[in-house]
Amino acid sequence: MSARHGPAVDVPSGRPATVRTPPPGDPRLTRLSLNQWTTRRWGVAEAVAGCARFGVPAIGLWREQVAEHGLAATARLVRDAGLQVSSLCRGGFLTAADPAGASRALEDNRRAIDEAATLGAGCLVMVVGGLPAGSRDLAGARDRVAAVLEELVPYAVRAGVRLALEPLHPMYCADRAVLSTLGQAVDLAARWPAEAVGVVVDTFHVWWDPEVLSQVARAGPRIAAFQVCDYLVPLPADPLLGRGMMGDGVIDFRPLRAAVDAAGYTGFVEVEIFNADVWDADGHEVIATLIRRYVTEVL
Amino acid sequence: MSARHGPAVDVPSGRPATVRTPPPGDPRLTRLSLNQWTTRRWGVAEAVAGCARFGVPAIGLWREQVAEHGLAATARLVRDAGLQVSSLCRGGFLTAADPAGASRALEDNRRAIDEAATLGAGCLVMVVGGLPAGSRDLAGARDRVAAVLEELVPYAVRAGVRLALEPLHPMYCADRAVLSTLGQAVDLAARWPAEAVGVVVDTFHVWWDPEVLSQVARAGPRIAAFQVCDYLVPLPADPLLGRGMMGDGVIDFRPLRAAVDAAGYTGFVEVEIFNADVWDADGHEVIATLIRRYVTEVL
């Protein structure tokens, strides 16, 4: 994969590092957040230490890693490190058609909301789920997402947690998220106040959409999170791992970032990369590279 | 792949054939067309013979196979067999940014139009092309498609050939078609009369779209071709080959077929499957299976 997609990190023999890694405290880094799945082999402690070392002021946490480290311990750790939690990944998977499955999903999402509240996360990212096994009822699955949210949103509001609906690339419609476009996510979110239910703009998922710029503008104050990573061509055999380092794929980030800014979003820009090569690389090198690429490709 | 996706053809030990293959002349087959890529290992002569044997009244031809058999010979062969040519695949790849590439594309598309005219094809399917190598200028590529069509449409009109713009699944936006939704295709086609420029509705490419039913209705008389195949989950390692036999994937065909009918489309329903297992199977078995699946899943 490396040969086709470029190196996962900038190394002397690979892509030249056209900028030095900005030092901690550099004003260009004030909106940067490390989604911890980018440094997937690290636990919470290493990821927090990595952010502190490079001056990345925020982190996007994942429930699995938080559970491993302990919820209260994680909350303490990030607070002591002076980090903000840009998001908690993730709630969702709301499409179960059977009452037991729906009830389990509701229960799990309530726990996720509680965790997001404890961590002071900027939002809980919601990946709404795909078609239940054997089902072809896409409209039904979409209706169930809305119905479960009706139950979940009041709980989240009471907990002070903002839900962030994430449209996923249509290639994941069947198995991960029946929410497939930003416009559809805004339509759904619009049933509730913007401060209760927002949307996630993730460049990988929306870059292809002919309506993306107008829908970003329409989303406005509903933009709860902005995630960046590149779209690799060709996609690797596992399409979940086609998320590349910014600059290694086909996405032109600046127009999207400018549109999100123009829509009024002032939150963090979270780098979330699912990529076997990136995961195999040294975490510190990955952070150094993503900081440089953030400066050269996104800012 | 077979184990996860079901058999490529109906065999005694596999999925039960719940209906017998309707015999030639069965009124249920009057709108069926075999896209010859479904029986990819066959040349034009074998595919035409296969259609005749099973009473499939139309065929979607591919330029490569037509060239191998000879253009005039193919036109004679299909006419003598009493087959209609539902479509010719394919023109397009209009996004080259350099003048030489753009000029080659224009020339090649004029040849494709001439071939479609000779074959009496119902339309020339246009796969518009992705980003040029190294480019991230998606808006520019989309603009160039429109610009080249401005030159090409008059030529097609004079030749009596209808161009059919095919939106491809967004996963192919970078490398095959910057036309990603049916709505976008209708917007583009609307610059010309419906009889000059239509659109292709291909279930694989549009099933996920939250707007698909309203856009099919809006397309109305612009629907120039309706292609069916299923969307397999998980996708195989080569995502181009994720097109399965109807019934083996996640698409609910009837609502889409009913919407296309309600929009006024009375043309052929072309079965176009790109799938390694289908290609490895005996062509006659493939046709028998697709006829049964057409009856049980689509009609």
From TrEMBL, chains A, B:
Region (Disordered): 1-27
Record has Isomerase as a keyword: yes
Keyword annotations of the record: Isomerase
Occurrences of domain Xylose isomerase-like TIM barrel (ranges): 51-282
Pfam family membership, one: AP_endonuc_2
GO MF entries: isomerase activity
Keyword Isomerase: yes
InterPro entries hit by this protein: IolE/XylAMocC-like, Xyl_isomerase-like_sf, Xyl_isomerase-like_TIM-brl
PANTHER family: HYDROXYPYRUVATE ISOMERASE, XYLOSE ISOMERASE
Protein name as annotated: Sugar phosphate isomerase/epimerase family protein
Species name: Sphaerisporangium rhizosphaerae
